[in-house]
């Protein structure tokens, strides 16, 4: 084990957070945690993890579940392609791996939705495989430790950091090493005001105790412009029911339920003001800010029966999987249908 790894692991064993997927080296739990925590903070993702393992205790349970059941538990996490890929991958593991977990990165990379980081994380944490796993936290720790200024959103920067991560791997079991790097980035080597005095590898870190330098790393060149969009949704009610339909499997919120849009019902946005149901709901995506306007109509206001929609009892809306902003609005307003 390298001295770097030895210090890192010793710190981790003394300071690691007690998290449910760390209780045992259960490949299913570790895999599930890695998928759920992509683009999601640990504090937000942990309740989802607990709900998932209660609803789908094994990979066989997940593989046998209906996709709609999975999406219902998933709603609120965003990036719904992760859920679809997880479901497809679970079917392969349950049906083609013959009950035997694979320990090599290449086997995990072959599954839908499993990239180099996730494959490396699962293989090393669950099985001790000698494999690097470089996520955002690890990018930050290593780029600062070695003062690498190659942009991490360019191939050359990514290659340099992955090479360094592999060089620093211990000779034996890599599970704690992998988790320690992630934990260090999460708890100590934070984006702003890193706690260098608590860092186990500060002694040979190139920018330790130099916050101005540290906060400039890792380097990123590209910054995506955030676009603002105004969307419109119609809450159409009749006899204790409301109109809704399932979104297509491509595009935003695939496979989730949604309220109709004006063009679904042959209406123009300009004629909706009379049915306004209050101010718009703001919802932020990675590259977009949505303002969703809701309008409450009666069935008599429809110009025709739309295709692809169904009438659902107002009392049953929570049994379905909804995009977060629509579900939030329904929670406040469905009882006033």
Radius of gyration, taken over Cα atoms and rounded to an integer in Å:
24 Å
Distance between the termini: 64 Å
Tally of helical segments = 13
The CATH homologous superfamily of the largest domain corresponds to Hypothetical protein, domain 2
SSE string: HHHHHHHHHHHHEEEEEEH
* Helix vs. strand class: alpha+beta
| Total number of domains | 2
Shape summary: globular
Number of strands: 6
Strand content: 5-15%
CATH classification, class level of the largest domain? Mainly Alpha
Mean pLDDT: 89
Task: List segments where confidence is low: pLDDT < 50 over at least 5 consecutive residues.
Answer: none
Give a quick account of the main beta sheet: strands, pairing sense, barrel closure: 6 strands, mixed
- Tell me what the CATH architecture of the largest domain is: Orthogonal Bundle
The level of helicity is: 25-40%
What do you see in this structure?
The protein folds into two domains: 3-214, Endonuclease III, domain 1, CATH 1.10.340; 227-336, Nucleoside Triphosphate Pyrophosphohydrolase, CATH 3.90.79. Strands 1, 2, 3, 4, 5 and 6 form a six-stranded mixed beta sheet that branches. The chain has helices at 3-15, 27-36, 42-55, 59-64, 67-74, 81-96, 105-109, 116-127, 136-145, 155-167, 175-187, 211-214, 324-333, and strands at residues 227-238, 241-246, 257-258, 281-284, 288-298, 310-313. A hairpin with a 2-residue loop joins strand 1 (227-238) and strand 2 (241-246). The longest helix is centred in the first third of the chain and has 16 residues, at 81-96. Helix content is 40%, strand content 12%. With 337 residues, it is of the alpha+beta class. It has 13 helices and six strands. The protein is globular, with a radius of gyration of 24 Å. The termini are far apart.
């Amino acid at each position: 084990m390298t001295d770097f790894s030895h210090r890192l692991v010793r710190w981790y064993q003394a300071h690691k957070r007690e998290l449910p997927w760390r209780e045992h080296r259960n490949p299913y739990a570790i895999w599930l945690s890695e998928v759920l925590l992509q683009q999601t903070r640990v504090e937000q993702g942990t309740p989802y993890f607990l709900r998932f393992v209660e609803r789908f205790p094994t990979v066989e349970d997940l593989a046998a579940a209906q996709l709609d059941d999975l999406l219902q538990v998933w709603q609120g996490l965003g990036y719904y392609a992760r859920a679809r890929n997880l479901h497809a991958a679970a079917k392969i593991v349950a049906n083609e791996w013959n009950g035997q977990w694979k320990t090599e990165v290449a086997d995990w990379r072959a599954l839908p939705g499993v990239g180099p980081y996730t494959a490396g994380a699962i293989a090393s944490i669950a099985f001790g495989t000698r494999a690097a796993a470089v996520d955002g936290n690890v990018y930050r720790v290593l780029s600062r430790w070695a003062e690498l200024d190659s942009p991490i959103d360019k191939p050359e920067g990514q290659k340099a950091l992955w090479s360094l991560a592999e060089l620093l791997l211990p000779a034996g079991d890599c599970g704690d090493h992998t988790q320690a790097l992630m934990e260090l980035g999460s708890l100590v080597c934070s984006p702003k005001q890193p706690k260098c005095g608590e860092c186990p590898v500060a002694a040979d870190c190139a920018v330790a105790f130099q916050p101005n330098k540290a906060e400039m790393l890792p380097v990123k060149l590209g910054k995506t412009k955030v676009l603002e969009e105004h969307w419109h949704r119609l809450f159409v009610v009749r006899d204790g029911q409301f109109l809704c339909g399932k979104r297509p499997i491509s595009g935003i919120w695939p496979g989730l339920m949604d309220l109709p849009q004006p063009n679904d019902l042959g209406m123009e946005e300009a004629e909706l003001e009379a049915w306004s149901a209050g101010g718009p709901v703001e919802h932020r995506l990675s590259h977009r800010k949505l303002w969703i306007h809701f309008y409450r109509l009666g069935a008599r206001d429809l110009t025709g029966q739309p295709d692809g929609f169904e009438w659902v009892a107002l009392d049953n809306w929570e049994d379905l999987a909804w995009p977060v902003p629509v579900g939030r609005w329904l929670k406040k307003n469905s009882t006033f249908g």
